[in-house]
């Protein structure tokens, strides 16, 4: 799942992940994501920090408080690469922090790292 209020970021992530064989669910903000997460049960969530209505920290905290999704890795996305932002992400349960703009390689490396051993269908060729 990719949660970001930027259609450009959502589209880039969708292209990179789809080309690698992953199924992608897109959400434009935290409320949209929370409405979709139960139906799709993603193996991994990329979550932008700066979003309207419900920011990434709040969205991550709500996902991690859920018994069903507590073990689902949430990776924060942000154009800011500060220590405070990383620490705040870790405090709400994020597994990692990816700085935007991300490359295809860094996005796919993050997926591989955080889904190792998880029940994620391997990408098809």
TrEMBL record:
Gene3D superfamilies attached to this UniProt entry: 3.40.50.2300
Task: Show where the Response regulatory domain sits.
Answer: 1-115
Domain of life assignment: Bacteria
Which keywords accompany this UniProt record?
Answer: Phosphoprotein, Two-component regulatory system
SMART domains, A to Z: REC
**Any single Pfam family the record assigns to this protein:** Response_reg
GO BP = phosphorelay signal transduction system
Which SUPFAM superfamilies does this UniProt record tie to the protein?
CheY-like
Report whether Magnesium shows up as a keyword of the record: no
| Residues annotated with 4-aspartylphosphate modification | 48
**Name of the protein described by the UniProt record:** Twitching motility two-component system response regulator PilG
Name the source organism.
Answer: Rugamonas rubra
